[in-house]
Amino acid sequence: MKTKISGLIFILSMALFSCQQQNDLSLTSTETDLALKSAIIAENDVTVESVLEETTYEAEFFAESEHLLRELAHLQGNKDIMRGRHNSRYHVGNYPTVSIDTADAGYPITISIEYGDSTVLHHGRVISGTVSIEISAEKNTDGATRTITLTDCVVDSVAISGTITEVFNGDNSTTRIITNTTEVEFILVDGTVLQRSGTQIREWLEGLETTGHSDDIIQITGSDQITSSEGYSWLKTIIDPLIKSGECRHYTQGIVEYSTEEEVIAELDYGDGTCDDVAILTVDGEDIEIELHGKMAKANMHKYHSKHGFGKKGH
User: Cis peptide leading into 241, omega within 30 of 0?
Assistant: First the structure.
């Protein structure tokens, strides 16, 4: 990402200089800076959201298997209780070390997952570090909490640490709502540090009748405050609920707004429900396509540049 952004800045600088020389400037430097800044914010946000989702899914995967883990711990002790057991979540022969500590009264319990230097998931992503989950009560108990602590975790070269608190409300047959409160820090590949705190509410609209996830339809609302080590901060607000389908890797619809105390700087639109890998970032009335696939999100700035006269013959 660092090379990509540096290249964009160089291209934009040369294009601006050339166009200014010929008095044919279609976009001011201020607008260009805003577009670049907004694209970087959106790229980073999509990337860290994916990392956060991967780690919380890992926590959910083991927390939902609590009773099985208890049985295995009873049979062989509570250390490395997954040893020798194949699971399709991980690349063959590459599993984390899992342990469980239980209270005499049943709860709270703590599940620890140690990924070592690298544990490869079935789809190729690599995780390292330790995830700890403290569970306050039987799953699907109204008001039950899970406190997830991330220590020295890295997902595909993006570091993440901090805590996530999940509160379950509902009966899991007609209603399932999970409120996530996050206090986390990300370190990106280029060294940028992002501090993120906020709350998201996930409500299941479909899929409660089955045990699998493929038919789940989840609605997400909420907001997060983000501060960058580069010296600026912004508020991320879901202004139109995000929709996550169990059959799709990315959000299929919904709008996220990025703003400062002074103004709205951009909106990211995930679409109309179509299962694809693009979203549209709107900056000052202009659209930039964000590619969601891969390990790092990418902004198709070249389309934006061309639309505004950059790179034309004679410039």
Answer: no
- In this prediction, residue 69 carries a pLDDT of 83
Q: Compute CA distances 63 → 20, 47, 56, 118, whole Å.
A: 59, 25, 10, 21
Report the amino acid identity of residue 290. I
How many other C-beta atoms are found inside a 10 Å radius of the C-beta of residue 30? 9
pLDDT at 31: 64
Nearest to 54 by CA among 109, 131, 108: 131
- Top pLDDT among 6 and 98 is at 98
Burial 225-238 (b: 16+ CB within 10 A, else e): ebebeeeeebbbbb
Kindly report the number of other CB atoms within 10 A of residue 71's CB atom.
11
Token duo for residue 63? 């927390």
In order, the DSSP letters of 134-155 are EE-SSTT-TT-EEEEEEEEEEE
Asked if 144 and 174 touch (Cβ cutoff 8 Å), the reply is: no
* Residue linked to tokens 């590459």: 94
Helical ranges in the chain per DSSP H: 2-21, 29-63, 66-76, 301-307
**Of residues 66 and 75, more confidently modeled:** 66
What's the rounded Cα separation, in Å, for the pair 4 and 119? 28
Strand partners, 110: 101, 134
Written as six digits, the tokens of 192 are: 């940028």
Residues in a beta bridge with 256 = 238, 268
For the chain, how many residues are written?
315
Tokens of 86: 């194949």
Q: What dihedral do alpha carbons 36, 39, 45, 46 form, nearest 10°?
A: -150
